[in-house]
UniProtKB/TrEMBL annotation:
Residue ranges annotated for the UspA domain, each copy included: 72-212
PANTHER family, alphabetized: UNIVERSAL STRESS PROTEIN A FAMILY PROTEIN C25B2.10
Name of the protein described by the UniProt record: Universal stress protein
SUPFAM superfamilies: Adenine nucleotide alpha hydrolases-like (SSF52402)
Signal peptide, first to last residue: none
Organism: Malassezia pachydermatis
Pfam families: Usp (PF00582)
CDD domains reported in the protein's UniProt record: USP_At3g01520-like
Length: 252
């Protein structure tokens, strides 16, 4: 049986919030301490517009939130895969501070979704909004932030670049599934990221942060540690505290 696209995956880590889970708590009491700002929904009338672009925008802010000259905006491009979850978690844990703005953008690609299921799209957008609120709450100090969720149809790369120009964020964060590269590509120094990530890095006017899944990072680390060809330098420096990269006694 095919798994619904927004259903929480049982294999996900227990402490990880599924951004597209049908089980996400989108009831208003989950947004206690927050207030909704005016949103936009052009999905019903998209076909009658000149561009034919559908969009659905949700905005919410903490009741004590105030935008100042010190407010920073951080954008995260998401999709319906688990690769988006660590990317959003990363900016919430490492970048966002009190008084900042978080913008999550998802592009519904025409080629993959020629007919948009408007009900599912709105449901997914509300689930994403709820997940960001819960991630902020999980930080402990409940930072006073503003949250914007943008769902738009169109070409993925050009739409993301357009939204970067609109919001002018400090950075753009995207997730990657950790593309596999061949031995020849490794010898040539090929970066293991997808074509979209590369194009955004080259063309985006703000810094682009690529977040790889933790399991791929650990797998790569273990592979390096077990490779005998990489042990020569470690064997030289392991007993000399004055040299860099000294391993602690507890390291594998």
């Amino acid at each position: 049986m095919e798994r619904p696209p927004f259903e929480r995956r049982s294999s996900a880590k227990q402490n990880r919030l599924s951004l597209f889970s049908r089980a996400s708590n989108t009831h208003e009491h989950n947004f206690k301490g927050y207030e909704r700002i005016v949103g936009f929904d052009t999905m019903p009338d998209a076909e009658s517009t000149v561009s034919g672009t559908a969009s659905y925008t949700l905005q919410m802010k903490a009741k004590e939130y105030t935008r100042t000259k010190h407010t920073r905006t951080f954008m995260c491009a998401v999709d319906a895969t688990e690769a988006s979850e660590p990317a959003l978690e990363w900016i919430m844990e490492n970048l966002v501070d009190d008084g900042d703005e978080v913008v999550a953008v998802r592009v519904l690609d025409y080629e993959e979704e020629p007919i948009i299921d408007q009900k599912k799209a709105r449901e997914a957008a509300n689930n994403l909004l709820s997940a960001i609120v819960e991630l902020n709450r999980a930080s402990g100090d409940e930072r006073k932030i503003s949250i914007t969720v943008e769902f738009m149809s169109g070409d993925i790369k050009s739409t993301i670049l357009h939204m970067v120009r609109v919001y002018r964020p400090e950075s753009l964060t995207i997730g990657t599934r950790g593309k596999q590269v061949s031995t020849l590509e490794k010898m040539l120094g090929t970066t293991p990221i997808g074509n979209l990530s590369k194009q955004l890095i080259w063309q985006c006017p703000v810094p682009v942060i690529i977040v790889r899944p933790e399991d791929r990072i650990q797998k790569h680390l273990i592979k390096r540690l077990t490779d005998p060809r990489r042990h020569e330098y470690a064997d030289i420096v392991k007993d000399d505290p004055t040299l860099p990269m000294r391993r602690s006694s507890g390291s594998p």
